[in-house]
Design brief:
nucleotide-binding (chains A, B); cytoplasm (chains A, B); 14 helices; ATP binding (chains A, B); Proline--tRNA ligase (chains A, B); homodimer; alpha+beta; globular; five-stranded mixed beta sheet
Amino acid sequence: MRLSRAFLPTLKETPAEAQIASHRLMLRAGLVRQTSAGIYAWLPLGLRALRRIEQIVREEQDRAGAQEMLMPTIQPAELWRESGRYDDYGKEMLRIRDRHDREMLYGPTNEEMVTDIFKAYARSYRDLPRILYHIQWKFRDEVRPRFGVMRGREFLMKDAYSFDLDKEGAIRSYRAMMLAYMRTFQRMGLKAVPMAAETGPIGGDLSHEFIILAETGESAVFYDAGFETLDWEHSDYDYDDPEDLARFAALLTSMYAATDEKHDPAAWEKVPTERRREGRGIEVGHIFYFGTKYSAAMGLALAGPDGRPVAPEMGSYGIGVSRLVGAIIEANHDEAGIKWPDPVAPWPAAILNLKRGDAACDALCERLYAALGGEAVYDDRDERAGVKFADADLMGFPWQAIVGPRGAASGRVELKRRATGERQEVSLEDAVAKIRG
Amino acid sequence: MRLSRAFLPTLKETPAEAQIASHRLMLRAGLVRQTSAGIYAWLPLGLRALRRIEQIVREEQDRAGAQEMLMPTIQPAELWRESGRYDDYGKEMLRIRDRHDREMLYGPTNEEMVTDIFKAYARSYRDLPRILYHIQWKFRDEVRPRFGVMRGREFLMKDAYSFDLDKEGAIRSYRAMMLAYMRTFQRMGLKAVPMAAETGPIGGDLSHEFIILAETGESAVFYDAGFETLDWEHSDYDYDDPEDLARFAALLTSMYAATDEKHDPAAWEKVPTERRREGRGIEVGHIFYFGTKYSAAMGLALAGPDGRPVAPEMGSYGIGVSRLVGAIIEANHDEAGIKWPDPVAPWPAAILNLKRGDAACDALCERLYAALGGEAVYDDRDERAGVKFADADLMGFPWQAIVGPRGAASGRVELKRRATGERQEVSLEDAVAKIRG
């Protein structure tokens, strides 16, 4: 993408309304623009990061055996009357009447709808187990939206739903999602801690939140220091082996970790003092086992192995995909801007032409841009070097390939690693190799 | 995807409400399920087709120099008051009040919002030209939704918006989108005809609809037979060359083609009788040039080359992405089911194991499935061969790899091409090569 033709705007001023770093940087770097309170348009730079994060979430759901579908944003009120949640949900639910005065709503979650869809097709225990998921925009009419995409009203969520024959199967699905979640966050360079949590309006009796530790987090958290040094390899666990899944769940749940809502002072006392950590965190995922709450209420019953009808045991599993953009920035930034981890960077590199119009600079930049297959941001604007440095730091591409007249004359590129500030002078070929990783 | 574990349900009965082939087949093959009138959930099979279609649309927008962003579904009413369309739009607009009683709406289109966003960042003529697009769910509260996803209420649309310094530039952008559209539909195996069209609520004085000829189409159309044999190569036209774009536009607009709303009997009389074609068609795209209608109304003015403010000339360009799934099926089906064109097929092949439990059949199927990298539907269900044949025909995978005991004993696969019914006995290696294309 040539910056001279791109729609990649940055702001010089820090918007007054932004209280936390990720919100400030997302506005300044041109990732998003607020269009109403708590509702954002994703500009090209932000959308690319969002899509990369979404793709990692998708790949790990698929790997765990979940199957992607897509439910609509607008749901009929009747479904929520069946489960009894229509009246319970309160003002966070965006309620709508269509032209025929039918009661509709903008989905905040999809337990009812997925149960209704599954019921339409599944016939017997042979249709179990299944995990279905979708990645779709949701709406929760927060009374006070804040922190940018971290607590917006229209947000992108991955929500999965498991259907199993019995509790044992449901716990296996729950553990498979635990593994998929830990791997998802690990791939994004995030250290997530699963914490015992309240089930809230979803219901059920088993629930974990996945928390990224960050000073600006909304939740107070208590955890064992062992999580800080927890070391595990995804390849050591097989989704098809229940014992592997049990072993992984045990690894994660053997140490104390809880949000303040579930904090248990008696259990906390048993954690050795030197291992007790208190802090704040950002919730990026939440999983629930709730048994037959929805299947029973909505009449989902399948023929069991003995022919008698059985209500599937269910769970649901959410990841805040758009919120993750903010969480990743909270964990990866400095005063100058964003420092994207490679796996989620909108582009891997920016090419900075320090002297546009200089034949050697122009030629080397064009060669580098072509060698990267156009998969870089080429700053070919008629701007001062200082502006280009500042924008590249702000937008946070993992690599900056800096081309000035002196280096260009001898075919050399100065390659800067945004995360560390490390610089080295390299040939074009080496620059391409390093950027391509 | 192993069918024994997949959520790929099919229906034996033809749903009574489906009046046209695509609607009937989308329900029977398990592509979608209606969740409210005119609102559909996309099941895994349908979602995969939708995503492939979406990706072709995206690639051709990118190739034409358009830049992807993503605007939210919920918009503030004030924006539409600025343009004057809030009251004009009527009951098709889904109007919403949030918990603070603010007037919102579910976006049916985005001229106002994109103009407002562009205005926030663009400063001068150097920020022109730009084409921005997004692929997002829209809502139009149709009084009588019908024909499945062809006239649904919640639908996926690609909408692009061009900003140019002057009319000449705007016409160039308009022509670039004409080329991108024709290439988009061509890649999907569709023959689209651009027809002069009414501008309707978008406004402006130049507009074309892109129509796929189909008996079940909602629009009556009149066109020159020359469109049936029109031959053109995308590679003959360069998006950066205004003369190429003018030449392409001339090719498309030199022959008569109009929907009944714009039909001109006087011009029609000049078409030689033997070249006059009347029929019906499905609108899959619509492009508009409307000058400064929105930029002027919403105060978008940039510093021109002479320093004086100028309102950019704009156009907008829509493709009905979810509707295309229906249109492609209308053009590619028979009594038995869908016949997916290769570029948009959810999976390239189904592997039909005719005798599950037979060691040779099971082994050959597993080898073939592995050789295709899991990128096939493997029908490993405990079902009769007839059920497997019928489901594969219904779901419409371009290839069927049929494995029975006789062939399996000698390592042979019967490969059936769904589109033509042609069958051949081949080795596993040849089957993989043909399926991979």
